[in-house]
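> example.struct
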């Protein structure tokens, strides 16, 4: 039987760098789009893994894939289609509301993309400007309408909270505006201020006022309450979906299913081995027979594999099943982690029911603390 795998394609370009962003993406490299497309196609055509796999999810992320001409994205997808792609595969492209229109979305839909992930972030222009985003609140509604007109019926909206200058009222308005568009999925992340970004520098200088920790938590609870009222159930720490519209590609990450990454900085997990592609765009563009573009190649040990099952699986509200753990690792969940699980249960951070262990609402608030417990 062929291995079922996901495919990730990294597009490392954006029109402008957002002030909080530390993702591997660059602005002002438009002159490299075609060469990059050719290099990704070369890597896909020479994949050792794809010919022996059945692909059931594809995800074009970035960066902002849609700053590239849609025909380039279509061409890359066409090269993925030369392999076995399962009927009904989920095929996602990320987009910025300011980088798509009806025509470009029509080309992408026709090429085979069937899920669109729009980086909406907030519904207030002053917040979008503050973040350095290229779009306005009107652009979000326009992009959403254009996507629906182009026949995308599986749309995700990415939102962010705990933004500098953001009030609770504005966050609630953002949630309501987003949910009232009837998307199949919403991701809602609390802003992390990363070193090396403009926000990181401003924060260090005391020039960035953000909601405090208590308000951050209230914003988090508001997301679950409001989105739940629109039928978007909370299935992962930061993700909400209509039943059956959970992001199948991301679930692979949380369930340790295989995926192969293409393009600079992409990550892969296949045959119990993890690796990352090189960061250098210049080197990647020179890809050729025998090029060494994979770095940090690590065979996952049995101990690491069990730890991953816990700290990735517990991100999902359904948690980790005892049976799945035994199937994956040949040993009982409680034999390995009985002590930690008991400690977390005593603190009210985890619960156990119907053969599964999972985080409680309190546990989700301090999930990083819980995850670290499973690394000891
Ligand atoms: S659009 Fe996304 S990837 Fe690009 S700079 Fe902004 S946050 Fe980063």
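> example.seq
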């Amino acid at each position: 039987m062929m291995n079922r795998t996901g495919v990730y394609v990294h597009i490392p370009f954006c029109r402008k760098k957002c002030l909080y962003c530390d993702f591997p993406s660059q602005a002002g490299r438009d002159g490299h789009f075609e060469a990059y497309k050719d290099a990704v196609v070369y890597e896909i055509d020479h994949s050792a893994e794809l010919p022996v796999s059945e692909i059931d999810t594809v995800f074009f992320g970035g960066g902002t894939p849609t700053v590239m001409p849609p025909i380039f994205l279509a061409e890359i997808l066409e090269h993925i289609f030369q392999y076995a792609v399962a009927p009904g595969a989920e095929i996602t492209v990320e987009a910025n509301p300011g980088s798509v229109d009806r025509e470009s979305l029509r080309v992408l839909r026709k090429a085979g993309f069937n899920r669109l992930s729009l980086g909406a972030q907030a519904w207030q222009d002053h917040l979008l400007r503050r973040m350095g985003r290229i779009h306005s609140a009107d652009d979000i509604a326009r992009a959403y309408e254009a996507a629906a007109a182009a026949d995308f019926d599986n749309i995700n909206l990415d939102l962010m909270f705990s933004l500098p200058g953001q009030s609770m009222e504005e966050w609630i308005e953002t949630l309501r505006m987003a949910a009232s568009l009837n998307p199949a999925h919403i991701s809602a992340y609390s802003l992390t201020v990363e070193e090396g970004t403009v926000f990181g520098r401003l924060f260090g200088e005391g020039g960035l006022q953000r909601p405090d920790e208590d308000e951050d938590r209230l914003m988090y609870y508001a997301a679950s309450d409001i989105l739940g009222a629109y039928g978007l159930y909370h299935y992962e720490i930061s993700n909400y979906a209509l039943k059956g519209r959970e992001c199948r590609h991301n679930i692979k990450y949380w369930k340790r299913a295989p995926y192969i990454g293409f393009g600079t900085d992409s990550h892969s997990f296949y045959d119990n081995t993890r690796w990352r592609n090189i960061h250098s765009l210049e080197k990647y563009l020179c890809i050729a027979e025998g090029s060494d573009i994979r770095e940090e190649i690590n065979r996952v040990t049995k101990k690491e594999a069990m730890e991953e099952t816990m700290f990735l699986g517990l991100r999902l509200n359904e948690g980790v099943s005892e049976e799945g753990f035994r199937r994956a690792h040949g040993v009982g969940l409680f034999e390995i982690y009985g002590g930690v699980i008991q400690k977390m249960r005593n603190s009210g951070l985890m619960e156990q029911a119907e053969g599964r262990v999972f985080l409680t609402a309190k546990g989700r608030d301090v999930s990083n603390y819980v995850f670290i417990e499973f690394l000891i």
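> remarks
DSSP finds 15 helices and 17 strands in the chain.
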